[in-house]
Design goal:
Elements (H helix, E strand, L loop, with lengths): L20 E3 L6 E3 H20 L28
Antiparallel strand pairs: 1-2
């Protein structure tokens, strides 16, 4: 599997699992394999959320009305 550089985005080819650090051939950035992967996952998650139109931020975001799980049924009333 290609490992995209989290700095410039160039896919630098597959690397065996024993390669823990690598230098991007395009921009020269030295990467820790796990740290680079974490940045790429965070970036991809942010892009997915942005594409769906939800606000992106570090805090809690209330669920949008259509995502609350009501499925269109009126809420049940609870006896007090």
């Amino acid at each position: 599997m290609c490992r995209p550089c989290s700095a410039c985005g160039v896919k630098d080819g597959s690397k065996p699992l024993n390669v823990r650090e690598w230098t991007c051939t395009a921009c020269g950035t030295l990467h820790d394999r796990d740290h680079n992967a974490a940045i790429n996952v965070k970036t991809a998650a942010g892009l997915a959320v942005t594409a769906c139109g939800a606000p992106v931020g570090p805090g809690l975001v209330p669920a949008q009305r259509e995502e609350t799980g009501s499925r269109g049924f009126p809420p049940e009333t609870c006896a007090a």
